[in-house]
From TrEMBL, chains A, B:
Gene3D superfamilies: 3.30.1330.30, 3.40.1280.10. Pfam families: MRM3-like_sub_bind, SpoU_methylase. Belongs to the class IV-like SAM-binding methyltransferase superfamily. RNA methyltransferase TrmH family. It comes from Thermobifida halotolerans. This is RNA methyltransferase. It comes from the Bacteria. The keyword Transferase applies.
């Protein structure tokens, strides 16, 4: 472990932290180096507790002692910078003052992730990192066992998803399907009832669909706006809806619907 | 009704639509003129159906026919602009191509809003417009009868809140408390059980708190991060929690928690 003061935002040692709001740059940079960034003391501690290995930490002067109790054991450099350097580097005022860059680990396969699971959420094409983070937080908090992501679902280890999830993306095991078209077969073969959440008025109510909740359930959640694809709706064993009470509102947003469905599935 | 092509973003007739992302400017401008803005065809139609009176509409050329079926009856000018003028005016690419400025109506009083209500949500200091909008959408969609807002809760008629609510802010009746300190007395006097949602481990579970759901319930929801104030927690009849399943997640975000609580209250 070493604590190093850095005075220049262009210093190569800070390269993991550049331009955090430039999402195109970040995606290619993080993929190329196999890293992800966690922001804020609480979330960084959760990543460490979950066993992720840090590449480095970045602390502003004001928060330089924030992680003193764990820094000794990290085996990664700790960079301390002025607020102005931090802002120049990341592209906004870093008011939490704590960032860390971690190594990504190889994702487990779907089989491994669902092997002992009774309740899983399956995210089709949820493309908004905020929504992915919020769904992970609800699913993990309520006791869902795992998540499975379609190929086009947004990355749970993107900074914004991590932040909104409050670190739940570190503790809820997840895997990604290689194959969107046939991807649900594996879950069905393992005895999961495929439960598609939809606002369609002819679907059964969520409470009816879950019943006593025996058995294994995979809750399918579709994209913001468009919902589940016709393919996945067609593959589901049950189409379930959350009953709506008029007032010119025909559906809930996907994070609210996911929270309610996870609550009903795990109660 | 008149449809008017406007070629200059600085034209005074477009003044309601300037710099939509400058939240300080927008707050003072909208308060001064007693207006609010709705964005997107679907949401504008919902505002019209709910009886709000338009000051004007702003359509991009590509969407100029979007509201043709209702424009005749509006009694408000319809401005049509190029994409470039729209972008210069509002400060970003207006991809939906439909905006409308509406007159605000005087808010009803708390007594009026809760008079016939059995289920109300009470938002203490929820300061994020996204969260206010999402909570309105869930509450309205699930069948809550009204909302009551503490003095510092964010404005449901701010553009972002309207958008996230998908127009539910137009259909769920709401009022604002003048008095934070004593504001809950009124609800208690009317026979509402004050149910405070909290992650505190010693609270009863939500399902226990609601029981058979007879009687009148006011669900108290607190600020992002800090939750309900000590004052309001102390005034509650029941403190209720959503059971959490370890995984290093100690609470849900306020919109997920609100969705679950509204679902439980209205089932």
């Amino acid at each position: 472990m070493s604590v190093i003061e850095v005075a220049d935002a262009a210093d190569d040692r800070l390269a993991d932290y550049v331009r955090l709001r430039d999402s195109n740059l970040r995606r290619s940079l993080e993929a190329e180096h196999g890293l992800f960034l966690a922001e804020g003391e609480k979330v960084v501690r959760r990543a460490l507790r979950a066993g992720y290995r840090p590449r480095s930490l970045l602390l502003t002067r004001r928060r330089r002692a924030a992680l003193d109790d764990v820094i000794g054991a990290l085996g990664a450099p700790v960079y301390v910078v002025d607020d102005a350097v931090a802002e120049q580097l990341v592209g906004f005022h870093l008011h939490r003052g704590v960032l860390a860059s971690f190594h990504r680990e190889p994702l487990p396969g779907v089989d491994e992730v669902v092997a002992d699971a009774r309740r899983v959420v399956v995210l089709e094409d949820i493309v908004d990192h905020t929504n992915v983070g919020a769904i992970f937080r609800s699913a993990a908090g309520l006791g869902v066992d795992a998540a499975v992501l379609a190929p086009r679902c947004a990355d749970p280890l993107y900074r914004r998803a991590i932040k909104v999830s409050m670190g739940a993306v570190f503790t809820l095991p997840y895997a990604r399907l290689d194959d969107w078209y046939g991807g649900l077969d594996d879950l069905r073969r393992r005895g999961f009832t495929l439960l598609a959440l939809t606002p369609a008025p002819d679907a059964v109510t969520l409470a009816e669909a879950v019943g006593e909740g025996e058995g294994r359930y995979a809750l399918l959640l579709g994209a913001e706006g468009d919902g589940l694809s016709t393919r996945w709706l067609g593959q589901a064993d049950v189409r379930a809806r959350i009953p709506m009470a008029a007032r010119d509102v025909d559906s809930l947003n996907v994070t609210a619907a996911a929270a309610i469905a996870c609550y009903e599935l795990t109660r």
